[in-house]
């Protein structure tokens, strides 16, 4: 079992006294004399160490009877980076809870996806996080409710339903317990003239919310948004007015998101057909931009290599651009095998036009959702304009995804899924590893056969053969996926002519 930072009292006290925002989300400080819990960077005068106790999650604080601080709003902290760098039971469970699985399928559904019994899942989460899956999901529902209360004119009954509460009474009780205010009082106190830090504001289009997505500094937006813009599939994605925009396929409907980088946050404008998808949409946008990463830990490890250090020092805080839909990314990875970025976009755009679900975007050029695996599985292979071997690779992948014999999602074990991908026809190490890196979120996925990586390695004086580069990269673990981003940044065309 992992031991969280909250058990290191001396380190936690130092972080609180220095108001160190790098530790927001790593642990929460509960103040015994006030009954309030805060993020480490809370701007109020720190309490005496003897009055502090530390918890690994907001849900654990709430279960212990503490309520959220109204100044620092700890429920809006960046997520713990632990859940992104691990693939054990607890980490996979936390990713599923963030994706709303408990609200949609209950604890039995969560356990089924993880391949464990409900008792095993509950025991593991309670031991490591101080709260079980229901309490963790309850804390998330409370945050969603607050977001809707403060940013929309929706009636409270509709908000309760959209946030996942089973009754108005439970909604009222939970909001009052967590925030020490009734839902009506939260709405009355919501800022009207300008947003407070991390506070969302209402959008001007019906069904639209505008909010801030916090992150741990530094964040270098160039590779992150540059990569997404360069590989954008027409109709599904676009770069417009300084924002990356795309369509989203969600459990209850669909949405359109616009993401704009700022020095201290990413502005997120969401238009949803069903407000119940709010929590899931936010979670997927955060994963897309890798906003819960710990850049200090990542860059510190990579900077220890004297040949990588200049790249890190030049532009620290690079993130791994990921995806909002794991199956979509896998299909696009196959389409991109051994062709240029432009050709891959053309292939994907043809599939979108022919088989994607149309959507209405009054603000821009988004026209479709990316085709579902069911829709792609029904496509006549002879209509696909690509070499026969790659056609076989694509049709095998989508048929396995459609019938459920292959699963790609936040609940996946990285090593096991990579092995299953490599067993498919036409899947080599590059395709399996790029899916592991960008779809599954493995922070240690590595691409030693990528031509852009090998070229960059040679220019830096690193070994350029895959075997030798892999051996050298052992010192970069567990952050080799981030090393890939730094290496790609040295090449003008890092994603052209991709190997299999």
Discrete helix count: 23
Shape: globular
Structural class: alpha+beta
What is the spatial order of strands in the main beta sheet?
Answer: 5-6-10-9-8-7
User: What Rg is obtained from the alpha carbons, in whole angstroms?
Assistant: 23 Å
Spans of at least 5 consecutive residues with low confidence? 193-203, 493-498
**N-end to C-end Cα span:** 37 Å
Percent of residues in beta strands: 5-15%
**Helix content range:** 40-55%
Mean pLDDT: 89
Give a written overview of the molecule.
By secondary structure, this protein is of the alpha+beta class. A 6-stranded antiparallel sheet has the order 5-6-10-9-8-7, covered by helices on one side. Helix 7 (133-151) packs antiparallel against helix 8 (156-163) and helix 7 packs across helix 9 (168-179). A hairpin with a 5-residue loop joins strand 5 and strand 6. The protein is globular and about 65 Å long. It has helices at 9-17, 58-63, 82-85, 89-98, 101-114, 118-129, 133-151, 156-163, 168-179, 183-189, 221-230, 278-289, 295-303, 309-314, 326-335, 341-355, 373-377, 388-403, 414-422, 429-440, 451-460, 466-472, 480-488; strands at 28-31, 36-38, 52-55, 67-68, 201-202, 208-213, 237-240, 243-249, 254-261, 266-272, 357-358, 368-369.
């Amino acid at each position: 079992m992992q031991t969280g930072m909250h058990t290191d009292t001396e380190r936690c006290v130092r972080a609180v006294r220095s108001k160190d925002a790098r530790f927001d989300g790593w642990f929460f400080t509960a103040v015994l004399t006030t009954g309030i819990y805060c993020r480490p960077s809370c701007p109020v005068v720190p309490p005496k160490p003897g009055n502090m106790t530390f918890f690994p999650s907001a849900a654990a604080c709430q279960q212990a009877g503490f309520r959220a601080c109204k100044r620092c709003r700890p429920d809006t902290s960046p997520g713990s980076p632990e859940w992104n760098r691990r693939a054990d039971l607890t980490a996979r469970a936390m990713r599923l809870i963030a994706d709303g699985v408990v609200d949609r399928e209950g604890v039995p559904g969560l356990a089924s996806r993880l391949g464990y019994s409900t008792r095993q899942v509950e025991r593991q989460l309670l031991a490591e996080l101080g709260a079980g899956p229901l309490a963790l999901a309850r804390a998330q529902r409370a945050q969603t409710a607050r977001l809707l209360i403060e940013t929309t004119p929706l009636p409270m009954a509709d908000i309760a339903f959209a946030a996942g509460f089973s009754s108005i009474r439970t909604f009222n009780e939970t909001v009052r317990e967590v925030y020490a205010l009734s839902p009506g009082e939260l709405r009355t106190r919501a800022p009207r003239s300008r947003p407070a830090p991390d506070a969302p504001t209402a959008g001007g289009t019906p069904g639209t919310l505008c909010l801030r997505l916090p992150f741990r500094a530094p964040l270098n937006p160039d590779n992150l948004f540059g990569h997404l813009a360069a590989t954008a599939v027409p109709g599904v994605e676009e770069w417009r007015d300084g924002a990356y925009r795309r369509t989203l396929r969600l459990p209850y409907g669909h949405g359109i998101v616009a993401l704009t980088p700022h020095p201290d946050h990413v502005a997120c404008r969401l238009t949803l057909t069903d407000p119940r998808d709010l929590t899931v949409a936010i979670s997927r946008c955060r994963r897309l931009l890798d906003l819960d990463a710990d850049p200090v830990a990542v860059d510190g490890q990579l900077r220890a290599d004297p040949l990588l250090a200049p790249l890190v020092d030049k532009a620290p805080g690079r993130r791994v651009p990921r995806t909002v839909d794991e199956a979509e990314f896998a299909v696009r990875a196959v389409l991109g095998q051994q062709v240029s970025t432009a050709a891959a976009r053309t292939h994907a755009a043809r599939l979108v036009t022919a088989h994607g679900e149309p959507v209405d975007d009054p603000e821009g050029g988004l026209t479709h959702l990316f085709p579902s695996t069911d829709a792609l599985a029904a496509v006549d292979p002879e209509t696909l304009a690509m070499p026969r071997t790659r056609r076989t690779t694509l049709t095998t992948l989508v048929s396995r995804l459609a019938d459920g014999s292959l699963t790609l999602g936040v609940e996946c074990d990285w090593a096991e899924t990579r092995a299953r991908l490599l067993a498919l026809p036409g899947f080599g190490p590059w395709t399996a590893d790029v899916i592991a890196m960008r779809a599954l979120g493995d922070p240690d996925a590595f691409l030693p056969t990528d031509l852009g990586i090998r070229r960059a390695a040679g220019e830096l004086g690193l070994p350029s053969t895959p075997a030798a580069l892999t051996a050298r990269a052992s010192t970069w673990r567990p952050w080799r996926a981030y090393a890939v981003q730094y290496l790609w940044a040295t090449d003008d065309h890092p994603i052209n002519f991709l190997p299999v």
